[in-house]
């Protein structure tokens, strides 16, 4: 049986290898290792793709979120509301500022943040709410933005939603968003990279200053800043892949629809629950996540059987933030966020990438069906 990875980075590289090689030669010839023309062009191109006025490239997605929060006024001792069902970096960016993560549950069908719970959790000490656009679709940011108190900023975690929209709105438009270009993302670098997206020129300038030791000119330091900059070599890779991102997202949507059809019998039999797309969302399917119902073998057993047969299934994410040792000081216990906990116990990510074939998906589904027996 052929091996099928969760994400095929080799296939993605093969499509851009010649462009990347030529771009690396340009950067080496110009010795433009930090910043430079490639970075400026990528920022301009990605801003256009994302439908925002400004893109500020930074070192990674966690930095991007921290810088977006800091630029939005989050300080030591403030509270920031975020979902318990997210990658640890969302809470980590808050903690690095010295602010306090305030966790809320996710919705049971999409696993996106429960926006009503987020609104209920806001108080006088809340400075920001961070919806996470999970698996490739956007959370209900418009509903949140319309009802948040004036002292609370909306800061979007868009690390998994490059190219996604909700009701025609893209992350960062009219506000501020952070994204990650970790290699496995829909738009992935050859190492760590990230960006902050916004229409607000003042916010963009503050992020750029904070990321560059507190200033935008050499030896000028207006604020105490950080060292978090996108390098020229990564910008070359991102520009090459950005030119193919729209087509890649369309291929992901086609593959997701194919999974829906192939898995229909297993869903009808109550063995798996298929992913749900909220109304108004244009999904970019960073991940295709099913839920194992428990009618047969448990999720971990199913995942182990798939992996043993060469199918690169994964779990995003196996432990909610409130149950990790890193955030045990928040005082939560099992049962506090039941939807996030149930998701952590049952979700299973199946292989999905633009180059996946119908035959490979059929192999995945056949192997999953065997594992569920």
From TrEMBL:
<keyword id="KW-0032">Aminotransferase</keyword>
<dbReference type="InterPro" id="IPR015421">
    <property type="entry name" value="PyrdxlP-dep_Trfase_major"/>
</dbReference>
<protein>
    <submittedName>
        <fullName>DegT/DnrJ/EryC1/StrS family aminotransferase</fullName>
    </submittedName>
</protein>
<dbReference type="GO" id="GO:0030170">
    <property type="term" value="F:pyridoxal phosphate binding"/>
</dbReference>
<dbReference type="Pfam" id="PF01041">
    <property type="entry name" value="DegT_DnrJ_EryC1"/>
</dbReference>
<keyword id="KW-0663">Pyridoxal phosphate</keyword>
<dbReference type="GO" id="GO:0008483">
    <property type="term" value="F:transaminase activity"/>
</dbReference>
<dbReference type="GO" id="GO:0000271">
    <property type="term" value="P:polysaccharide biosynthetic process"/>
</dbReference>
<dbReference type="InterPro" id="IPR000653">
    <property type="entry name" value="DegT/StrS_aminotransferase"/>
</dbReference>
<comment type="similarity">
    <text>Belongs to the DegT/DnrJ/EryC1 family.</text>
</comment>
<keyword id="KW-0808">Transferase</keyword>
<dbReference type="InterPro" id="IPR015422">
    <property type="entry name" value="PyrdxlP-dep_Trfase_small"/>
</dbReference>
<dbReference type="InterPro" id="IPR015424">
    <property type="entry name" value="PyrdxlP-dep_Trfase"/>
</dbReference>
């Amino acid at each position: 049986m052929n091996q099928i990875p969760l994400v095929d980075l080799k296939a993605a590289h093969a499509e851009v290898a010649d462009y990347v090689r030529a771009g690396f030669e340009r950067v080496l010839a110009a010795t433009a290792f930090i910043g430079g023309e490639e970075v400026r062009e990528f920022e301009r191109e990605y801003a256009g793709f994302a439908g925002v006025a400004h893109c500020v490239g930074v070192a990674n997605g966690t930095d991007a979120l921290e810088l977006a929060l800091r630029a939005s006024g989050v300080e030591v001792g403030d509270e920031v509301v975020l979902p318990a069902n997210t990658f640890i970096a969302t809470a980590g960016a808050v903690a690095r500022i010295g602010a306090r993560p305030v966790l809320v549950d996710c919705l049971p069908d999409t696993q996106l943040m429960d926006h009503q719970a987020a609104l209920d959790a806001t108080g006088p000490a809340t400075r920001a709410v961070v919806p996470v656009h999970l698996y490739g679709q956007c959370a209900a940011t418009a509903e949140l933005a319309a009802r948040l108190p004036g002292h609370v900023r909306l800061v979007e975690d868009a690390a998994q939603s490059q190219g996604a929209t909700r009701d025609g709105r893209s992350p960062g438009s009219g506000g501020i968003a952070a994204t990650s270009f970790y290699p496995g993302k829909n738009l992935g670098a050859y190492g760590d990279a990230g960006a902050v997206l916004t229409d607000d020129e003042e916010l963009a300038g503050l992020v750029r200053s904070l990321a560059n030791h507190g200033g935008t000119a050499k030896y000028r330091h207006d604020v105490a800043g950080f060292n978090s900059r996108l390098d020229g070599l990564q910008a070359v890779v991102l520009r090459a892949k950005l030119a193919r991102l729209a087509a890649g997202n369309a291929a992901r949507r086609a593959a997701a629809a194919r999974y829906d059809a192939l898995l229909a019998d297993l869903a009808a039999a109550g063995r798996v629950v298929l992913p749900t797309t909220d109304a108004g969302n244009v999904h970019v399917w960073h991940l295709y996540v099913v839920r194992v119902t428990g009618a047969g073998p448990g999720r971990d057993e199913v995942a182990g059987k798939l992996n043993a047969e060469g199918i690169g299934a994964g779990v995003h994410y196996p432990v909610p933030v409130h149950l990790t040792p890193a955030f045990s000081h928040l005082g939560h216990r099992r049962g506090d966020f039941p939807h996030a906990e149930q998701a952590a116990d049952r979700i299973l990510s199946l292989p999905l990438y633009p180059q996946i074939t119908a035959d490979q998906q059929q192999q995945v589904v056949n192997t999953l069906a065997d594992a569920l027996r």
